[in-house]
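Reviewers asked in the last cycle whether our approach scales beyond single polypeptides. To address this, we selected a multi-component target totalling 858 residues and predicted its structure end to end. The input consisted of the following lines:
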Amino acid sequence: MTAYTEMGLEEIRELHSELEHKYSEYRALGLKLNMARGKPSPEQLELSLPMLDIINSTSELVSVDGTDCRNYGVLAGIPEARALIAEMVHARPEQVVVCGASSLNVMFDTISRAWSFGVGGHAPWSEQDEVTFLCPSPGYDRHFAICEHFGIKMLPIEMDEDGPDVFQIKELVKDPKVKGIWCVPQYSNPTGCSYSDAVVRALASLKPAAPDFRIFWDNAYIVHHLNDASENQDHVLNMLDECEKAGNPDMVFEFCSTSKVTFPGAGIAAFASSETNVAEALDAMKAQTIGFDKINQLRHVRFLKDAQGIAEHMSKHAALLRPRFEKVLEIFEEDLAGTGIGAWTHPQGGYFISFTGLEGTAKATVSKARMAGVTLTDAGATWPYHDDPHDADIRIAPSFPSVEELEQAARIFTVCARIAALEKIMLHS
Amino acid sequence: MTAYTEMGLEEIRELHSELEHKYSEYRALGLKLNMARGKPSPEQLELSLPMLDIINSTSELVSVDGTDCRNYGVLAGIPEARALIAEMVHARPEQVVVCGASSLNVMFDTISRAWSFGVGGHAPWSEQDEVTFLCPSPGYDRHFAICEHFGIKMLPIEMDEDGPDVFQIKELVKDPKVKGIWCVPQYSNPTGCSYSDAVVRALASLKPAAPDFRIFWDNAYIVHHLNDASENQDHVLNMLDECEKAGNPDMVFEFCSTSKVTFPGAGIAAFASSETNVAEALDAMKAQTIGFDKINQLRHVRFLKDAQGIAEHMSKHAALLRPRFEKVLEIFEEDLAGTGIGAWTHPQGGYFISFTGLEGTAKATVSKARMAGVTLTDAGATWPYHDDPHDADIRIAPSFPSVEELEQAARIFTVCARIAALEKIMLHS
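The resulting structure, written as structure tokens, was:
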């Protein structure tokens, strides 16, 4: 295939008209497809239905330490739930606090505590001059939304295939206003890339000017491989350990949940950090609640059992997700390879494919797709302040639709991306 | 019985020695009894076990609006859960946001939002000169702990049998620093009193100087009657309505939960307020979470069904709680009536009996009881800053122990209270 940028104007016009024709045919179908959010499909949700039978009226609802899980208490989570999450994120149980159902809520609360009360005994962020966060971009829109909510200034950091640009980060943390960095280290949202050992170690060894600087390590996809263990799986280094080794034991706040293991919004979420940080968090949390849902913790422990149980369960998710990712990648390859108008990631896990189109085409592509009934994440959403400086990145979420729907949605997407690219090229020729 | 204050010294000494003898006998038993926290008993928890069968792997987990409750979404709660809670607190469903499992957490978050972002478009409380809360006392220790955590100044307000002293409140809200008042309007914690219609209406018609003043209406015991509907039940006026009628529609934040209906820590909690306040809360909450546990919401709705279902379920709780309250009151009556050394409340609902001893005897009583194996709520805990100015109030929580245990615990309590009173009298004679 000739690269579009090397085509003559006549050829471009012809192709554009041909694609516009295809586009209007798709539009006429009146489809309603959604590739916007990282939602598990109904088939994935069915995998966890047996969990709802694990706890019933005849179950013994007592935790290993004798706690009646039906009653008040146990702020940090029941011991077996702390142990399960610890296994999942390779932490020690004492480093884990098991909270409610949403890791986003745990992250929000962590920022909120820092905002109102400070971190590590330092002044509340709300009382400090200006608070800045480093935001590897494209990144997770809801991380950025928390920062925007608190008026935390965000600086985008370039994302490479092995993680964020650590040279840039090392420079920026010399500014004491820089208090944090958002990281999705494994199967990053949205690029799907995983941080290399070198990047993890460089981050763990940062010497930030701010003593209350923290790495917000959102390990959302730590067990969310698309392939079996024998094949390609990414395994990012344990940041808790690396920070400890680098003499920065308190520098990381880790977050995770079972939202995409069992049920989104009805799973268990957790916070993992040094024991010092855990003690500080618990001390504040005791004013907030008496304890989180221990029955749901027990339900999860008895269903997932241990790391092996989680891995087996996740391979069932993978079996449902893999063909979806493959279908989208197959169509991208068929329709876009050689066109020179876009690149896309080939993740080994997580929930997203990231598409980078020609500069200045993302908004047009997303809007065109929407008019043909295909909802995509807003262009720009994966950048701080919704501002993609190149207007190029589009997040593709292939998990929810069926393979048949994805085939249509991906076809429509490539038509839209190609039309947007051709129009861009025409405009500049 | 002769009032202790009217006894001669000799008589006092004799009685004291007799009670000390009894006390040492109790101590020798090496008991371990707890009347400290408002925890449901295991028998009460069993009442809700059938709820755990309501949702299983074969259940249709779809809400009335078609939402798949196993997946992400629906920040304000599924419609049927909002409707159930609305029925429970006599609100409109649009006035209700159903959150996670802990109403304490909802209250904390509400204060936290006010602290960081302000209320009703006004400046964040953290940026205002000083924030003061009015605290009807004795009151709920965890309310006061939230204020202490945020550095909110607390002013105790006198509690009468029909609620807090509204004359005092009317005066104090003329100060624009006064931003809130904590109320447990029905079967108050710990006195068990319920606010009269006059008190509710006076509060609803307050004209506070601070435009961001709010009544924190913790309706923790709204359906927690000890008697059947045909007998003595308190029914406090609907504060949402009263505020609306008084032209203060946005002045109340109401909270409730099913912690003492189904399972403490694994129930559903909610926020109810004007639609304006609900919209403001939801706007902030959308940065915090994608949504709360909808499966647990569905479980509760299908188990409790409606107001009638809640009432029937609560009457089973009442049947277990009533003999416990009666036993404690019976022993107080037997041991303390006529002694003139204490008064106690006779609540028609809720979780507590409040004992008011002679001035300067509460700490001594609690400490003496603890040495004999009876744990009580710390003296002073029910007052702001743990400072009971009269050192007189003790909160008695009769819900958790068995009737037999309560009999022993109450006997030990009255012995300790009498010894403390006699020692106080001797000291001053």
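Chain A has two domains: 4-44+312-428, 61-305. We regard this as preliminary and will revisit it once experimental data from Aim 1 are available.
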